[in-house]
Design a protein that fits this description.
One of its GO terms (molecular function) is metal ion binding. Helix 1 (about 5-20) packs parallel to helix 14 (about 275-285) and helix 4 packs across helix 15. It is globular, with a radius of gyration of 19 Å. The strands form three sheets. The chain has a four-stranded parallel β-sheet with strand order 2-1-3-4, sandwiched between helices. The chain has three domains: about 5-85 and about 270-290, 3-Layer(aba) Sandwich (Rossmann fold); about 90-175 and about 295-310, NadA-like (Rossmann fold, 3-Layer(aba) Sandwich), CATH 3.40.50.10800; about 180-255, Rossmann fold (3-Layer(aba) Sandwich), CATH 3.40.50.10800. It is an alpha/beta fold. Strand 7, helix 9 (about 155-165) and strand 8 form a beta-alpha-beta unit. It is built from 15 helices and twelve strands. The protein binds 1,3-dihydroxyacetonephosphate (13P) and iron/sulfur cluster. The site of iron/sulfur cluster has 13 residues, from helix 5. Iron/sulfur cluster binds near residues 88 and 176.
């Protein structure tokens, strides 16, 4: 017989104790993984948690670049991920060699990279940011210093508007956030005229223009708890809605459909992680994130800088 949800949770918690492991999960994981995790957060909070943990093993339920970041921050810990193929379309759109050529064209520029990139791209950057601190960090750079911002052009454009700074933008984007259909947003707003539209800054500016509130996954979650609105149209990966319903059980949350009316609005990479794979990786302590030492050391500097600037 298949195990019940509670049996799965108990088995995972026991394995964590046995292996001295902590489970960090992103909001885009499926409900069961979020319920099992010791800590759930956005990418900034998850990197902070990685830095703080005393566990010997970090099981990172998220995508590859997030687990890599945890490894860079904690080089002496074992960092494992349930499925090594859990990549990120945005990170893939910024290959390290092309990035090197790009930044070499503008040697006087300060290079800020969004955390959704490979360790090799981080290693070439001056500062890392996430969607929750990007505007604040960009505003701290003196006005006479020109900035390169990579790899997400949608986030970059939004940061430009918020900070009033023009930047050289790498032209990458997230396949999930680009897939939301304008028609679905309009339809939902007509059906629920009092609903607030809330969006992640990786959405296209066309969709961001409709939004009442824009922020990282954690900021969206805190917004629905502060806002007097009772209904929300959510323009980001629907995994976050699980936490929104836990925090605000009386409020209503509507997910926006993908371009062809399908629910292809969930991240195919995030969703590769399953509870079965969590159990397997805890038992075997694989697949493990192993990085080139030089890359790992170089990538630590801009991440440390971010963590110290965004306290
Ligand atoms: P957050 O930084 O808001 O967690 O976003 C991460 C991400 O991958 C969004 O697609
Ligand atoms: Fe990458 Fe987009 Fe998935 Fe976030 S939602 S992990 S940016 S592919």
């Amino acid at each position: 017989d298949p195990l019940t949800r509670d049996e799965v949770k108990n088995q995972i918690r026991l394995l964590c104790k046995e292996k001295n492991a902590v489970i960090l999960a992103h909001y885009y994981q499926d409900d069961l993984i979020q319920d099992i995790a010791h800590f759930i957060g956005d990418s900034l909070e998850l990197s902070r948690k990685a830095a703080e943990t005393e566990a010997e093993v970090i099981l990172f339920c998220g995508v590859h670049f997030m687990a890599e970041t945890a490894k860079i921050i904690c080089p002496d810990k074992k960092v494992i991920i349930p499925d090594m193929d859990a990549g990120c379309s945005l990170a893939d759109e910024c290959p390290e060699e092309d990035f090197k050529k790009f930044i070499n064209k503008y040697p006087d520029h300060y290079v800020i990279s969004y955390i959704n990139c490979s360790a090799a791209v981080k290693a070439q950057s001056d500062l890392i940011c996430t969607s929750s601190n990007a505007v604040d960090l960009v505003k701290r750079i003196p006005l006479n210093i020109p900035i390169i911002f990579a790899p997400d052009k949608n986030l970059g454009r939004w940061v430009e508007k918020q900070s009033g700074r023009k930047m050289k933008l790498w032209q990458g984007s997230c396949m999930v956030h680009e897939t939301f259909s304008e028609e679905s947003v309009i339809k939902l707003k007509l059906q629920h005229p009092k609903a607030e539209i809330i969006a992640h800054p990786e959405c296209t500016d066309q969709l961001l223009d409709y939004s009442d509130f824009i922020g990282s996954t954690s900021k969206l979650l805190s917004h629905v708890q502060i806002s007097p609105a009772e209904e929300f149209i959510v323009l980001t990966e629907p995994g976050i809605i699980h936490q929104m319903r836990i925090k605000e059980p009386k409020k209503k949350f509507f997910e926006v459909l993908g371009l062809d009316g399908c629910s292809c609005n969930s991240c195919p990479y995030m969703r590769l992680n399953t509870a079965e794979k969590v159990i397997k990786s805890l038992k075997e302590l694989t697949p493990e994130i192993i990085l080139d030492e030089e890359v790992q050391n170089k990538a630590l500097r801009p991440i440390k800088k971010m963590l110290s600037l965004s306290k």
